[in-house]
Sequence to fold (763 residues):
Amino acid sequence: MSAVNPLKPSQRMKIPRQESIEQPAAERSINFLEVSFGFDEDRAVLESQRCLECKEPYCTDGCPVGIDIRGFVTLVLQKDYVGAVQKIREANYLPAICGRVCPQESQCESLCVMGKKLTPVAIGKLERFVADYEMKHQLFTPPVVTERREEKIAVVGSGPSGLTCAAELAKMGYRVTVFEALHAVGGVLRYGIPEFRLPKEILDLETERIKALGVEVYTNFVIGRTATIDELFDEWGFKAIFLGTGAGTPTFMGMPGENLSGVYSANEFLTRVNLMGAYRFPENDTPIKIGKAVGVIGGGNTAMDAVRTARRLGAERAYLIYRRSREEMPAREEEIHHAEQEGIEFLLLTNPLRILADENNWVQGLECQRMTLGEPDESGRRRPVPIPGSEFTVELQTVIEAIGQKPNPIIQATTPGLATGKRGTVVTDAQQATSRPGIFAGGDLSRGGATVILAMRDGKVAARAIAGYLQGLNSPPP
Amino acid sequence: MFLILRKKVLAPTVTQFDVKAPFIARKRKAGNFVMIRVEEGGERIPLTIADSNPAEGSITLIVQAIGGTTKLLTSKGAGDSLLDVVGPLGNPTPIENHGVVACVGGGVGTAELFPIAQALKAAGNVVHTIIGARTRELVILEQEMATCSDSVTVTTDDGSYARKGFVTDALKALLDLPGSGVHAVYAIGPLPMMKAVSNLTRTYGIATLVSLNTIMVDGTGMCGGCRLTVGGQMKFACVDGPEFDGHAVDFDELMKRNRTYVDMEKITDERHVCRLTAVRQEEIR
Ligand SMILES: Cc1cc2nc3c(=O)[nH]c(=O)nc-3n(C[C@H](O)[C@H](O)[C@H](O)COP(=O)(O)OP(=O)(O)OC[C@H]3O[C@@H](n4cnc5c(N)ncnc54)[C@H](O)[C@@H]3O)c2cc1C
Ligand code: SF4
Ligand code: FES
Fold:
């Protein structure tokens, strides 16, 4: 039964999944402009016609924030794009960002019925289309804050978890202050994810919208250093605090040669390029130095971003070195695909052993060893095992390690009574409450390296929990 | 924006700034540093906080104009602002009563040493200070150091002032003095100087703390650019330091690593010099 879509299901299934309009690989691999332009209106409408409008849409079960996907896709079909983006925003405050960076293939789209036999509805690209449409035509209407509440709440960290938590609380009428250690807002969205995947213009716009809700933002403010958590409570008068400080501390493999010139953590490499604008050196002052051949170690989004950035900075050969096979790579499918198109060379089932130096203490090679897949490990993925005698050397001048991050320890070390778990994460309950009353946490800080949308989900859950906590404080004890 | 309240030239390339930064001024302890960005498009660079005045809400920074960014900074004056200042970062210097200590400063390192010498004196130590500089006009803070030291020895490499030679010569003389009883050494200056001091004190078995200037980007522990090897382990200078046991630091590796961007720094430097002269010409016009 469908009130809107005149096509019969069999007809809908004949429509092929629509592809985004993209910059050709040869062009884009030498510039920092966005790779994908997304859908135009025709493609968006055609894609929306593919949706079967299931009575029990599974897609929403796959969305960590529970967007009414069928509802918004139907609005696209009716060409009510603003209605569609408003529907998304009921559940997700940052659709232009999520439409670009969410791993839809393992979330909503993985559960879409159409994907059982054919290909799933391109939910992510539709989300992006409606958000971009609203932006392009300046049709955004800010939410009206009806109530004003006196309580002050501090949000620490301005990544997706912090921004979402701040926006949700501000909409409820609370007085919110965001503290950010860096000089710019956005967390990984600012310093990690490159311009060619997420234009910073979008982040700036979203930040302005959140500020317009009355949220105050202090950049250059490191909690634990400039002021401690206890000072925020006792001296600044905050009634509750959300911690969204992410997992920004890089880890290294621990192999010989890591302190040579020409070895970067992915975080340093991407921060220099994205936050500090090193790709415009010497117009900007921060330098970055890469060789003719660059090797990036890892298989996640961070590795993919680093290797594609290296390519754009002029690396003639850009290698991605990963110890498992392509199937096990945690990166978004689209990024892997784009990287392949851009001429990134994948050295799979390859494990680095040590970095070799030239006479000036610069990197000149990476000694590696070939691997084969053995029995599945605890994560269910097949464990890579070295092949004896398979050592070989890759000639390169830059090594970038993207093998994972852990939480920055400053707050944990300066906040008594805050329980931490393995790898330095902050422990929370299902409502994102930590071991200390009034302190909530979420995103990579509690998960230890996850996704933008999970960070946003945590920020949202925490905002509701904070409101509940404050109302509890206010109501007289029974 | 962080307003520059006062500027004072201490030596031909060494300038002191008092900058309005009330939150940092309140919290700052000896040994802390800030990361600053002078203007949009600029680098983030670390600077030690030489002093602070919580009542006024100001911190004191002492800068040697060596690269593009520091030259740009020293071209600023009272009434100008710095775009970003964040801190206080790093661990404060552990201050204890050791009995007798030697404070050894080289070049602008003396500015970083000054608050530490003050704190050591306040903790009840007998403080012997040794200040080294290349030449007479680069000797800074001699009088200030005298206010918190039981003795001050100055050395110049070229002998143009006070004792000719290196700080290590003066330090060795002090350590060899019968009954000098030095129990700990605090050394801050160029890496080769701190290395030489550490090598010397190692033979005497005297604990030595050095403050390291490494490559830094964020200064909060999220890039690893500041990493170095201490006692065979990887450490991040910005969060694990900036002070470390001089006997455990791999100075040779660090000195090589610090040369990573020398050629590019030259480009930045030249660009800023061009821009500064352009500005000055504009002013003249
Ligand atoms: C290169 C890269 C690419 C990625 N690509 C994707 C992708 O395509 N899709 C996806 O879903 N996920 C991706 N991720 C993961 C995703 O970005 C993170 O899961 C998400 O950003 C976590 O959000 P957060 O709010 O928890 O923290 P973050 O985004 O890490 O933000 C934390 C913020 O807190 C600040 N902070 C830290 N300590 C303090 C302090 N003491 N005081 C004040 N502020 C502090 C930090 O400076 C930072 O701005 C990627 C990650 C990286 C590194
Ligand atoms: S599961 Fe797929 S087909 Fe069904 S409503 Fe969701 S998007 Fe449409
Ligand atoms: S400066 Fe980035 S981790 Fe120390």
Observations:
- Residues 100-211 of chain B form a domain with the Rossmann fold fold (CATH 3.40.50.80).
